[in-house]
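Problem 12. The chain below contains 232 residues. Write out its predicted structure in token notation.
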Amino acid sequence: MTPELIAAIERAKAEKRPMVLATRLADGTQLLLPDPAAAPALAEAARAALRDDESRTVHLPDGDWFLHVYNPPVRLVVVGAVHIAQALVPMAALLGLDVIVVDPRRAFASEERFPNVKVMQEWPDEALDAIKPDSRTAVVTLTHDPKLDDPALDRALKSEAFYIGALGSKKTHAARLKRLRALGHDEAALARIHGPVGLAIEAVTTPEIALAILAELVAVRRGALLAERAAA
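Solution.
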């Protein structure tokens, strides 16, 4: 691998950009993808590898290529440093998620309550603007407070976040949707919100609710991957 390639990979990692290092097995030729100059078949194979989050060897007209996937970690933005978040965050870390806790209330959003996790004490809309949720980002709101949850959901709906969840009863969620409609979100956008959040496993305790949320997040992520794979 050339010094130029190594430097390009390190830059992409620092910027958390997904990429594929393609190596032709016959002669060692290497390319960093995406690259507008890449052959269409190789470019499509790289997109599929990134989508599946899986390094692989592919057989193409110009030879066999090994595609080494460099994907940034899946991020989980938790809005609300509440007691459910204290159960959710450690579980999410075990799944390999890069967790960010957002809450402007300094008494809640502290390193003592959330050790070894990035904590942002900005207002949710400001935090989401800085985070810039992408297709490898999930956003979950837990506060029940429209002043905190609604701005976060507004920003999440304007992003490519693959999962958006909001804690609350059906009545609370209906009122939430009404407020988001007033902000200009249509029914197709609102359908992206999983609310009440979590799989219907009759969760009662705080850890059970956290488990239900993460189970739904994983189901959506893996289901989306399967759907994209089928459509490819």
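Discussion. Residues 88 and 210 are 5 Å apart (CA to CA). Students who got a different answer should revisit the alignment rule from Section 12.3.
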